[in-house]
Amino acid sequence: MSDRGGPGGPDRFPGGPDGVPGGANRVPDDTAAQRPAAEAVPAVDSRLIVREEGLRGYLNEFRRKLRSGELGSLPVVVAVIIIWTVFGSLDSTFLSAQNLSDLSQQIVGTGMIAVGIVFVLLLGEIDLSVGSVSGLCAAIFAVLNVLNGMNEWLALLVAVAGGAAVGLIHGFFFAKVGVPAFVVTLAGNLAWNGLMLQVLGTTGTVNIPSESVVAELYSKIFASPAAAYVAAGVGVGLFLLASLLDARRRQAARVPFRPIPEIVLRTAVLAGLAFAAAYILNQYQGLPLALLLFLVLLVVLDFVLRRTRYGRQIFAVGGNIEGARRAGVSVPFVRMSVFTIAGTMAAVGGIFLAGQIQSASQTSGGGNLLMNVIAAAVIGGTSLFGGRGSVWSALLGALVIGSIQSGMNIMGVSNAVQFMITGSVLLAAVVVDSLSRRSQKAAGRA
Questions:
Q1: What residues contact 236, with CB distance under 8 A and at least 6 apart?
Q2: Residues 122-132: pLDDT tens digits?
Q3: Contact 244, 64 (CB under 8 A)
Q4: How far apart are alpha carbons 176 and 266 in whole angstroms?
Q5: Secondary structure of residue 117 in the 3-state scheme
Q6: Per-residue pLDDT reduced to its tens digit, 286-341
Q7: Residue 75: count of CB within 10 angstroms of its CB
Q8: Looking at residue 69, what is its pLDDT?
Q9: In 95, 105, 184, 266, which residue has its Cα 20 to 30 A from 337's Cα atom?
Q10: What are φ and ψ of residue 4, in 5° steps?
Q11: Considering the entire predicted model, what is its pTM?
Q12: Cα 243 from chain centroid?
């Protein structure tokens, strides 16, 4: 048995300035125990570095993160800039207000489903059923509302509840029975696709009226320029308020907090991006309701992940399941709830996709949808190894994939080439994730 941490062990008496290693021959320094606690060297926090060194602190912290593999959203942001620059130089219509506005709507369905995948990936697991679940829930809504005359809001609620129930079933078999998530969701991918075909029956395709709530959720646009600017202003204001409250709370607890100049700088950058996006949207038709709902959902779920106990439990289980269990986290509950969220988001995404094409058919949820939503989550920066990621990864990743598809469609590139390029981007994202994780291990941060 190792004596690490025991009396006379290396953790008990580490080597000192005299160069004598810890161990039985090391004579403990009695005066060390009598030194005041104030002489202990506190752990360095990036917020302290920035506050004390200003701009130099920012640069030093940025270099440290790069060396240790903490890349965050930097790779995907760079990717978006490169993609937009390349396609914009090849065809000016790519960066037109109309194309960018259409792009903001088109990524919503995929992005919604990708949000659920982000939650699953944070556990270090995968869900291969979300494509079929999205198609099934779209079919449930269409059949109940269009063919059977059920109230559209009630049909919508039943469809979303169906997605949540499917996710709960997956979570039960994974968390309680012990079947690997890969196998459970792979079986679900086949089973729910079959159920979708059964629900649609001989009709094959059910058209959704353009005045339906589902179609309106996707196609509704607030034409007034004030709508986009008000939404941008509210978003920036909430960000500033949340940042100030967080800094105040941390300061009251006497832990490192972001200085006011940094908060102002972050808010200014966000304001620039938000109002620029609002200006572009207003150059075409206005603010799409689908985009607004997507952003609101991201804000709410980001708060859940980063500011609640439940969110911290998800990261804990994904980072170290045994450590989370010993800390009192109910691992089965977290697992089942996360797969329930994934099923719910698959249903919501499927509803938006059905509203986009105004129909539910036997091909709903098929094609390359599954690969796109997984790719969006991973390309956006969520780690395949669990414990690291953000719901904003779904937006960034969906934006990358949507931009590639939009640009290639404008240029008339075949689907075969689009698939190959999207696959290459996904592989590059996984390689970056693996190298980042390796760098963090070398730096002692993984």
A1: 267, 270, 271, 274
A2: 999 999 999 99
A3: no
A4: 44
A5: helix
A6: 999 999 999 999 999 999 998 899 999 999 999 889 999 999 999 999 999 999 99
A7: 18
A8: 57
A9: 105
A10: -60, 125
A11: 0.83
A12: 20
Is residue 139 within 8 A of residue 206, CB to CB? The reply is yes
Nearest CA among 330, 372, 338, 335 for reference residue 353: 372
Q: With 90 as the cut, is the pLDDT of residue 116 above it?
A: yes
pLDDT tens readout for residues 360-376: 999 888 888 998 999 89
Burial 157-189, CB ≥16 within 10 A → b, else e: ebbbebbbebbbbbbbbbbeeeeebeebbeebb
Chain segment 424-433, per-residue pLDDT in tens: 888 887 887 7
Q: Which of 386, 392, 381, 400 is nearest to 320 (CA)?
A: 386
Residue of 302, 305, 301 lying closest to 314 (CA atoms): 305
Check residue 18 and give its pLDDT: 42
Helices 289-307 + 392-411 axis angle, to 10: 150
The CA distance from 108 to 349, in Å, is: 7
Domain count within the chain: 1
pLDDT interval class at 259 (50, 70, 90): confident
The answer to whether the beta carbons of residues 418 and 405 sit under 8 Å apart is yes
DSSP state of 92: G
Burial class (CB in 10 A: 0-12, 13-18, 19+), 124: middle
- pLDDT above 70 for 251: yes
- What's the rounded Cα separation, in Å, for the pair 253 and 48? 15
Strands (E), 278-399: 287-288, 359-361
Report the distance separating Cα 356 and Cα 438, nearest Å: 41
> Containing domain of residue 412, as a range?
107-220+332-431
Q: What is the mean pLDDT of the chain?
A: 84
- Whether 257 maps to a domain, the answer reads no
Q: What is the dihedral of CA 334, 335, 339, 341, to 10 degrees?
A: 10
Instruction: Report whether 336 contacts 184 (CB < 8 A).
Output: no
Q: Tell me whether residue 111 is in a domain.
A: yes
Identify the residue with better confidence: 52 or 78: 78
Residue 296 lies in a domain: no
pLDDT at 29: 47
Span 190-218, average pLDDT: 91
Backbone conformation region of residue 124, classed left if phi is above 0, alpha if psi is from -120 to 50, else beta: left
pLDDT of 340 reads: 97
Residue 356 counted as domain residue: yes
